[in-house]
């Protein structure tokens, strides 16, 4: 599943990485051609946080999907 999100603050990044780490499957986050492991706080912080980011999850998790709605953009 793919989602578009926007992380505005370092606290948002920290909360997002914690939620991704609770998933027992791979979660990637990307901007343009740069793809990083969403479970890596340093990797996520290296992305351009001023832009919307694409989250790609390898499986479905209702709790994680509900969490992503907090940061979802159209």
UniProtKB/TrEMBL annotation:
Gene3D superfamilies from the UniProt entry: HPr-like (3.30.1340.10)
Domain HPr: 15-57
Alphabetical list of InterPro entries matching this protein: HPr-like (IPR000032), HPr-like_sf (IPR035895)
Any Pfam family hit: PTS-HPr
Domain of life of the native organism: Bacteria
SUPFAM superfamilies assigned to the protein according to its UniProt record, in alphabetical order: HPr-like (SSF55594)
Protein name: HPr domain-containing protein
């Amino acid at each position: 599943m793919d989602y578009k999100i926007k992380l505005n603050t370092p606290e948002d990044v920290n909360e997002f990485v914690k939620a991704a780490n609770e998933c027992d499957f791979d979660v990637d986050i990307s901007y343009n051609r740069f793809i990083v492991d969403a479970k890596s706080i340093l990797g996520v912080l290296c992305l351009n946080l001023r832009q919307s980011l694409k989250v790609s999850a390898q499986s479905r998790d209702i709790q994680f999907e509900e969490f992503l709605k907090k940061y979802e953009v159209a």
